[in-house]
Amino acid sequence: SQKIEQNSEALNIQEGKTATLTCNYTNYSPAYLQWYRQDPGRGPVFLLLIRENEKEKRKERLKVTFDTTLKQSLFHITASQPADSATYLCALNSNSGYALNFGKGTSLLVTP
Amino acid sequence: DTAVSQTPKYLVTQMGNDKSIKCEQNLGHDTMYWYKQDSKKFLKIMFSYNNKELIINETVPNRFSPKSPDKAHLNLHINSLELGDSAVYFCASSQAGSGTGELFFGEGSRLTVL
Predict the structure, then answer these.
(1) Contact assessment for residue A19 and residue A47, using Cβ atoms and an 8 Å cutoff
(2) B30 CB near a chain A CB, below 8 Å?
(3) Contact criterion met (CB below 8 Å) for A37 and A86
(4) How far is Cα A19 from Cα A109, in angstroms, rounded to an integer?
(5) Contact B66, B34 (CB under 8 A)
C-alpha cells in the first residue's frame, strides 16, 4: 500500500539552528512533492513544490531536497525562529494524479 | 477577501442528525476537494471535483454526499451522523490536478458528534 512517513516525534530545536524534517514514501511514483505548514486551528498553507527532476529547491530560509532513488525528501529551515513553530506536512500526488496525499506531519517547536 | 471559505467553522450535533458544510472559493480554480483531519491529525482525501464533476471518491461511506452546484462551490452533506464522523473537515481548491499545483485550504469546519 502507499505510505508517506514523517517523523512522528516532535522536533524541538533552539532558535538560530537549522531544523531538518524527513519525508519517506513507498509505492508512489510522484512527479511532484509538496510541503505545507499547518498552525493549530488553521488550514494547511503551501510552502514549496519540487519536481522529480529537481534535486533541490530553495525559498528564503527554506530548502527542500528530493531523492527519487531513496524515495525521500528533506525539508530544512535555516536560522530557525520561534515563529517557525508549526506542523509541517509532506504531500505527494497519488498515482492517479487527481489527489494529493499527505503524511501525518512533524511538529516543530523552536525555542528562544 | 478569503480565498477558500467554509461555513460553519464549528458544528456540534447529536448522533443520527443530518448536517451540511458549505465551501466557496473565489480563486477561479477548476478543482475542489474535501479532506478529513481526524484526532490524530491525519489529513485524508475524501472527494475531488473538477469542473463540477466528481473525479475522486476515496471509499467514503455513502452517508457523505458532496454537491457542486458550480465550480466555485463544493458542499458536503452528511446523513445519519456517527461518533466517528467527529473531525475537522477541510475544503481546498487548486487550479490543476493537485500534483501539479498548490492546494489552497479553507480554515476548516470542526464537527463534533455527541
Answers:
(1) no
(2) no
(3) yes
(4) 10
(5) yes
Residue where the block lists cell 493549530: A40
Look at A94 and A59; give whichever has higher pLDDT.
A59
**pLDDT per residue over A36-69, tens digit each?**
999 999 999 999 999 989 989 999 999 999 999 9
Q: Which residue has the cell 524541538?
A: A12
B32-77, pLDDT tens digit by residue?
999 999 988 889 999 988 888 888 777 789 999 999 999 899 999 9
Contacting residues of B for A92, CB less than 8 Å apart: 99
What does the angle CA B103 – CA A105 – CA B21 come to, to the nearest 5 degrees? 50
Count of Cβ atoms closer than 10 Å to residue B28 Cβ? 9
Question: Most B CBs within 10 Å: which of A100, A102, A108, as the mutation test of the B interface?
Answer: A100
Amino acid at A2: Q
Contact list, B101 vs chain A (CB under 8 Å): 49
